[in-house]
Design brief:
With 647 residues, the protein is an alpha/beta fold.
Length: 647
């Protein structure tokens, strides 16, 4: 099925490149041909100047199909030039036009997926203590909060059967190990079961009916298999006949029979092995037939997803990026998108398990080292999972050495994390989070709450999920226009304390790999208003006609009132908007908006906050002016009071 759809897609791409219905108005057709000639000559900018007005022109004369092609041309040209936000606008226009035309629904498939991949995404979360009740009744072996860490081990040269090596290699232990039973009438690896039981680990058992579904009957083998799992005594996740939605699985193609056999296995496990949780696990793709294979809530404990991220679609560099994007693959794909469809369908009623996953660090045939890309995307998966998919409660990496396998082995890439130092570093860093669990019956002390509308004033730590087509290099957090923190790695954390600032506006700005701003969001902060700042001079509270203000941690007060109270002569130079303060032989000059003060003709170190006009009064930093006229200054944070004393 995947191959058939891919071939149809390739045919569509060829057709769409061939041109549009020639029965359009001669002028528009001439402009279209002129744009196509410019495109073929490599002058995309010139072609775009024609395509852009042609979208509206074609719609105006009723040539909607042609308008769709012009919008598509604009979208793909802007995409190629790296102008992704603009490209999304035209992809959306193309999709809107063609979806209104009978028989054109499939024409939008490629660009719909591409638009998803390059559309900027930003969502801010508050990290907070995990309190309260779960969002639904917990399933068998489900943690309240957090994600169980697991992987396959027997094919991992860094671990093998020595499970004590996992923490030294990967940074922390596994809570669970993945084991395959790929031949019907065989059993789980006894040696691994014994060692895993000694370590108190759960098992994920991938049980594959290799002889077809007809071989699955309520017989001695099924009952004895259940008996072995019961004897294990610890939690077991039984993933029976996974990837049933893909035509590459021998048990695919008959949803009714599949459901019948899954229910049979589930029934027997509940009768014979109460420690077994049944896991139903489709592949992330194709997604249009998944529901047809679902056995029903009463027979399924967990819903799984199998999903791998490859640099090239099917390991083949010759496939276009558009084809790759349509399958959520390729170098520009967001690895998180693979989980989205199944998660959205089932997470409200079942815990989700990523039963098998891997991010490529090298393409196999031809061999291409993509470890920088792989490490970045592996970090994205594990860093963002707690934020955007909190109901994913377990994840297993396919750690299997295939370096000695030939081209016929059914894997396009190398996924073994221990096979590459960059991947190891990325994994260890991302899974150090307290969200991830290395023991059954654990629960994370953290949770992440999406900011909807306003940032709560009691927030102490913020993190962000950000997706930009050209990658993310830095995220800045600004409060009332002033920078309060930056982060250079996902999930882009920043510590905040709005109890010291009061209400205001938080801006979050994400910059791509070229340093260009790629996404931004603004949120109100609902912190309570702070009490007014008081100024005490030699034991006496001063009064001002314009109240002192706190800006970027500095208190500003009306200049004339404070300086005259200090015995300083105050003048004003209108031409330069400069305060001139004189006492004895000293002259201090503070220009509105200028960070650099001047004392007796000599420039002083820059201020954090310049003098500024507020409420018709020139406001100056109280500590700076007081200390420059021989006063001592302290700050009483609890009472929000500036204390000035004569030396």
């Amino acid at each position: 099925m995947r191959l058939v759809k891919t071939l149809l897609l390739a045919m569509f791409l060829l057709f769409s490149a061939a041109g549009i219905n020639t029965a359009m108005a001669a002028n528009e057709w001439g402009l279209y041909n002129q744009a196509e000639s410019l495109e073929q000559a490599g002058d995309l900018e010139g072609a775009m100047k024609l395509w852009e007005p042609l979208v509206g022109a074609m719609l105006a004369i009723g040539e909607d199909e042609a308008a769709g092609f012009c919008a598509q041309k604009m979208g793909r040209a802007l995409d190629k030039l790296g102008r992704y936000e603009e490209a999304v606008k035209y992809y959306d226009q193309e999709i809107e036009i063609w979806n209104k035309l009978p028989g054109h629904a499939d024409w939008t498939w490629v660009d719909t997926h591409r638009a998803k991949e390059i559309r900027p995404e930003m969502k801010v979360f508050v990290e907070e203590a995990a309190t309260g009740s779960p969002v639904r009744a917990l399933a068998k072996h489900e943690p309240v909060q957090g994600t169980l860490l697991g992987a396959s081990v027997t094919g991992d040269p860094a671990v093998g059967y020595d499970l004590d090596r996992v923490p030294s290699v990967y940074g922390r232990p596994y809570a669970s190990v993945l084991v395959y039973v790929s031949d019907w009438h065989t059993y789980v690896d006894e040696t691994l079961m014994k060692l895993a039981k000694q370590k108190g680990l759960s098992l994920q058992v991938a049980w594959e009916p290799s002889q077809g579904l007809s071989a699955v009957t309520d017989d001695h083998y099924l009952r004895s298999f259940a008996g072995d799992l019961k004897e294990y005594g610890l939690p077991v996740f039984l993933r029976f006949a996974a990837e049933m939605n893909g035509d590459w699985a021998p048990w695919s193609g008959n949803p009714g029979l599949y459901i019948e056999k899954f229910r049979l296995v589930s029934k027997v496990m509940r009768e014979e092995a109460p420690n077994v949780a049944m896991v139903w696990s489709p592949n992330y793709y194709p997604d249009d037939n998944v529901d047809a294979y679902y056995p029903g809530d009463q027979w399924v404990d967990w819903v799984g997803i199998n999903a791998y991220s490859d640099y090239y679609f099917n390991g083949n560099p010759s496939f276009s990026e558009s084809v790759a994007a349509a399958h959520y693959q390729g170098c520009n794909a967001n690895p998180l998108h693979k989980f989205k469809d199944i998660y959205n369908r089932y997470a409200s009623r079942k815990p989700i398990m990523i039963c098998e996953t891997g991010v490529a660090w090298a393409n196999r045939y031809p061999y291409v080292d993509v470890s920088d890309w792989g490490a970045n995307n592996l970090g994205r998966v594990y860093s963002y999972l707690p934020l955007v998919y909190p109901q994913i409660k377990a994840i297993y990496n396919f750690n299997y050495d295939i370096s000695n396998k030939g081209p016929d082995y059914p894997a396009f890439s190398h996924y073994l994390i221990s096979g590459n130092e960059k991947m190891l570093r990325a994994y260890r860093l991302a899974t150090a989070s307290q969200w991830y669990l290395d023991k059954m019956q654990q629960s994370s002390p953290l949770r992440y709450r999406a900011v909807e509308g306003a940032v709560p004033g009691n927030a102490k730590k913020l993190v962000s999920y950000i997706s930009l087509a050209s990658g993310v290099s830095r995220v800045d957090y600004l409060f009332n226009g002033s920078l309060i923190g930056s982060a250079t790695a996902p999930p882009w954390p920043v510590n905040v304390d709005f109890s010291r600032t009061g209400p205001g506006v938080l801006e979050v700005k994400a910059y791509d790999k070229n340093g260009k701003q790629g996404a931004s969001r603004a949120y109100d902060v609902t912190a309570p208003a702070l009490p007014p700042v008081k100024v005490e001079l030699n034991g006496r509270i001063m009064s001002f006609d314009v109240a002192p203000v706190e800006i970027e941690g500095r208190v500003l007060v009306p200049v004339r009132a404070i300086l005259e109270a200090l015995g300083v002569e105050v003048g004003w130079e209108e031409a330069t908007r400069t305060v001139i303060a004189r006492k004895g032989t000293d002259e201090l000059r503070l220009q509105v908006g200028n960070l650099v003060p001047v004392l007796n003709g000599r420039s002083l170190p820059a201020l954090d906050v310049p003098a500024r006009v507020i409420g018709g009064r020139t406001m100056v930093p109280v500590r700076f002016v007081s200390e420059n006229f021989n006063m001592d200054v302290d700050w009483d944070g609890e009472n929000r009071k500036v204390i000035i004393r004569s030396r």
